[in-house]
Amino acid sequence: MRIQSSGISLLLSLPALFSGLGLAADAFKCDQIKAADHTFDLSGLKGAHEVSYTSENQTDNYVVSTTYVMNICDVLHSAANRDGEKCGTDKNICGFPKTHAKDNHGNETFAYPVADLVGEGEKAPLATPLKEIDDKKEGLRLKMFGGEYRAHVEGETKPAAAIIDFQCDPDRSGLEGIVSTEDVLENGDANEKEKEKDIARRAEDKSEKPDPSLQIVSFGPDKDNTYILKLDWKTRYACYDYKGGNSGNTDPSKHWGFFTWMIIILFLAIAAYLIFGSWLNYNRYGARGWDLLPHGDTLRDVPYIFQDWFRRVVNTVQGGGSRGGYSAV
Predict the structure, then answer these.
(1) What domains are there in the chain, each with its CATH number?
(2) What is the pLDDT of residues 120-161, one digit of tens each?
(3) Which residue of 238, 292, 293, 323 is surrounded by the most CB atoms within 10 Å?
(4) Taking the model in full, what pTM does it have?
(5) Which residues fall in a compositionally biased region of kind Basic and acidic residues (predicted)?
(6) pLDDT in tens, 163-179
């Protein structure tokens, strides 16, 4: 019965294997963001970048300067630490508000996570083409969850999220006017290769732009009391005709998906046939070894059949040059 139990174990383990492969394939990758019928590649925007916003409260006589640090391709690592405040190195967007009292007394700083890219279910990142929101716009809307905002005055914690509209602008790389922070790995060593790539990307764009490519639109509570950070990011990587992107008609995953499933189904069918046939031969005939396999005699004869076929092919090729018919007397 050993054949039977091992075969069942194999079949039971296959769904878990394919399920694991599916989870790995669904993981967020900034160079393969699928939105409807298009795949966007935003890897050119990798790295930790920051953007700031200042608001003045006339009643309480203080000014709040908030700096948002973000990395849409990786977690922030040490960039999540600023001025002694920490928001979590496993986050992708962090906010660092700093309160400046007009009388130079009572200046305070705190930090809060805005969003990450590791959510599941309803909290998974959402990618939507901008044309579905506004048919006059081309690009991608990315909504990220997983943040927590603590109102500094009230001290109450609220859920936070971010909505980034990547707008198509063929003349912008997306790095114009953006301050980048040095992304340091958790082991304390600077990622020199990433820094060199970032410098090279910036060197490609020599033009001067009047305004930054990344801008803050708003930050505040939504209808469900979730604090939403809205950003506009103009970049060529959000254009449909950008060479790094793939349209739905040329997406290789669609073609490979059919053949992958065909191979999986074929493998399962062969495995089921061999397992059932071996179980039947064992229980009905008490077979052992090679006799367990269905059509075992045919499988044993395969090498000899191939050898005979190969010999015939060789004889046919070698005999093709001789002249047939009768010889002259």
Answers:
(1) 2-16+256-319 (no CATH), 31-248 (2.70.130.10)
(2) 777 888 999 999 998 889 999 999 999 998 765 556 788 999
(3) 238
(4) 0.59
(5) 190-211
(6) 999 999 999 999 888 88
